[in-house]
Design goal:
By secondary structure, the chain is an alpha+beta fold. It folds into 2 domains: about 5-40; about 45-209, Sortase (Sortase, Chain: A). It has 3 helices and 9 strands. Strands 1-2-3-4-8-9-6-5 form an 8-stranded mixed β-barrel.
Length: about 210
């Protein structure tokens, strides 16, 4: 008998002779199966949640209380801030205030340190690319001249993409810095499914909608 055969036989005998080992391997295989199912189903589940959240945010965006809070600058983290519409990509999604993990479960969120939509300065929005309805899944396809519309509780405006999307490091705060004029900056992870770098889209305000 070969040495490898003897080792295999000895291992099988050891496992068969020890119920605790068999139970451990049994539960370990179940845990691995469940983990695989969760990993596979995660995008579906997050999209389902974001779709439900978006329906609530649509009602909230146009409410009288939301308009009042927007004018006063007192919107809380996760509150409906604006609707982003990108005709070329068939995107129509409500953006919330803030970019915490909880807020971004709505799909996209406004960096609180940046200008409000349609106002002077640099208004920056972060969005998911592969989960939570993935509103920024295809922003890499935007090109100079493409339009982006923002609809706030008190008005709406149109931005025009000025340059090709580009990538930068995840810690590059320069893309959020104030700017002369009125600008819109979109940020998302790149490549899809990874957070190695950030994909940036820059657009300039060209007028009211």
């Amino acid at each position: 008998m070969r040495s490898s055969d003897r080792k295999q036989g000895g291992l099988s005998a050891a496992v068969s002779a020890r119920p605790a080992v068999r139970r451990t391997l049994h539960w370990l295989s179940i845990a691995m199966f469940v983990a695989g199912v969760i990993l596979f189903a995660q995008p579906f589940l997050t999209n389902l949640y974001a779709d439900w959240k978006q329906s609530r945010l649509e009602d909230e965006l146009g409410s009288a209380s939301n308009r009042k809070a927007y004018r006063e600058g007192s919107l809380e983290e996760g509150a409906a801030l604006t609707r982003i519409v990108i005709p070329k990509l068939n995107v129509r999604s409500v953006v919330v205030e803030g970019t915490s993990l909880t807020a971004l479960r709505a799909g996209s969120g406004h960096y609180r340190s940046t200008a409000l939509p349609c106002e002077p300065g640099n208004s920056a929005i972060a969005g998911h690319r592969t989960t939570y309805s993935k509103p920024f899944a295809r922003v890499d396809l935007l090109r100079p001249g493409d339009r982006i519309r923002l609809e706030t509780p008190i008005g709406r405006c149109v931005y025009e993409v000025t340059e090709q999307p580009w990538v930068t490091g995840p810690g590059d705060g320069r893309v959020l810095a104030p700017m002369d004029g009125a600008w819109l900056t979109l940020t998302t992870c790149h490549p899809p499914g990874s957070d190695d770098v950030r994909l940036i889209v820059r657009a300039r305000l060209v007028g009211p909608a």
